[in-house]
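Lab notebook, bench 4. The sequencing result for the construct came back, and we need a structural model before the next group meeting so we can plan mutations. Quick request posted to the team channel:

Model the 3D structure of this chain.
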Amino acid sequence: MAGQIPRQFIDDLLARTDIVELIDQRVPLKKAGSKNYSACCPFHNEKSPSFTVSPDKQFYHCFGCGAHGNAISFMMEFEQLEFVEAIEELAKQLHMDVPREQGKGPSRPAAQADDYSLMQQAADYYQQQLQQHTNGPA
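Done. Here's the predicted structure in token form:
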């Protein structure tokens, strides 16, 4: 589907998403203190929980590896989704249709679009190699 997703829709989507519920479906959270939740970080190996989720701020942060963000960035990182895919997945969970702005901004020529696609494929490949190859950490 062509066209940009309106910023207002993204803001509304984040406001409607309960980040604690979203993360708890994927990583079991435990109450930590009066407001926050904690777990072992899903983005690196650890023995004691350093991953916290704040329902008030709708934000997560890992004090071990530094991973942080909102519901969209969590979906991107945890589910290995692109930005638009993460928005579409969150919208689907909330039974919302993703609107698109038509006719906004300059359109890219086909050759330039192919270049962006090729660069994204290369970036995805190298990211996958760093995460899964036996020499990735080195």
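The radius of gyration is 18 Å.
Will bring this to the meeting.
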